[in-house]
Design brief:
Helix content: 25-40%
Number of strands: 13
CATH architecture of the largest domain: 2-Layer Sandwich
CATH class of the largest domain: Alpha Beta
Order of helices and strands: HHEHEEHEEEEEEHEEEEH
Number of helices: 6
Structural class: alpha+beta
């Protein structure tokens, strides 16, 4: 066979191979694109399961972790409070017995309760209403401290508890306060829908559910030395008006908590402190 014929055969062979490889590449790319196109977005998945997420904020937020420590109350801070007997427990907790019970009319709503009691409490503007817990064992109005307009969820160091009798009269209150609150690290941009995605992939959302509200706050992450605590930005997501879930806004983990257990345990701890403290205790 002459050299020119051999060269022609090689050229044709390589051309056929190139065409084959090109076809393989195009098929693979088309398959990848089809797989990508067939993967539904989170919004499409929620819509397909008729999950109402219209209340999820559209705007991104910039947040960071924060640190805080418990405030040490002094008698001077409380000296202007009237018509009550006050004891400061371990410097961290104010416990007060009111000289005259303050009636709370449920029809007035919580604002009426706040207006009636706030003049009797130091730093009252730093707390926001959280819940009114009524049961056979408990009748308490709970306030959580706020930072930059956002609540600090379930932390014994930043709470106001109004304790009521069976006639819905405030007879005692207890408060703690976080201070020296500082932002840590650089602010990070977060998307509310990412928290919803965490719930969805963890099977916390079901067909026909409604996301009733989303609120950004802070949840205790870890205690550090010298009484300092770290708090993570956290979404409180209410489902169907009655189930609350908490999701770390930066890292996406779902935070497990039991509101009833927390409040009851907090009050039990308070009672233990009161029983071991003299009402004549001096700072």
């Amino acid at each position: 066979m002459q050299w020119s014929q051999i060269k022609t055969v090689f050229i044709i062979s390589f051309l056929i191979l190139d065409i084959f490889l090109l076809q393989q590449f195009l098929d693979k790319r088309n398959n990848t694109e089809m797989a990508f196109l067939s993967e539904p977005t989170l919004e499409e998945s929620l819509q397909a399961e008729e999950i109402d997420f219209s209340q999820v904020p559209n705007e991104t937020e910039k947040v960071s972790y924060i640190t805080a420590k418990r405030h040490q109350f002094t008698k001077k801070e409380l000296e202007d409070l009237k018509n009550q007997s006050i004891v400061i427990i371990n410097g961290e907790t104010v416990f007060s017995e009111l000289n005259e019970p303050i009636p709370i009319n449920e029809e007035e709503g919580i604002k009426g309760a706040i207006d009636k009691i706030k003049a009797n409490i130091a730093f009252s503007d730093q707390y926001a209403f959280w819940t009114w817990k009524k049961s056979e064992r408990l009748n308490a109005i709970v306030f959580f401290q706020q930072y930059d307009g956002h609540p600090v969820y379930y932390n014994e160091g930043g709470m106001l508890l109004l304790l009521l009798n069976d006639d819905n009269e405030i007879i005692f209150y207890a408060q703690t306060l976080l201070d020296d609150i500082k932002s840590e690290n650089k602010e990070q941009e977060i998307q509310p829908l990412k928290a919803v995605e965490s719930l969805y992939h963890s099977n916390k959302l079901y067909s026909g559910d409604k996301i009733s509200s989303m609120e950004l706050g802070y949840f205790t992450l870890v205690p550090l030395a010298n009484g300092v605590q770290v708090f993570s930005p956290t979404w409180k997501i209410n489902i169907n008006g009655n189930n609350n879930f908490y999701v770390n806004a930066i890292e996406g983990q779902i935070i497990e908590t039991d509101e009833n257990t927390f409040i009851e345990q907090t009050i039990e701890n308070l009672i233990i402190k009161i029983e071991s403290t003299s009402w004549s205790e001096e700072e």
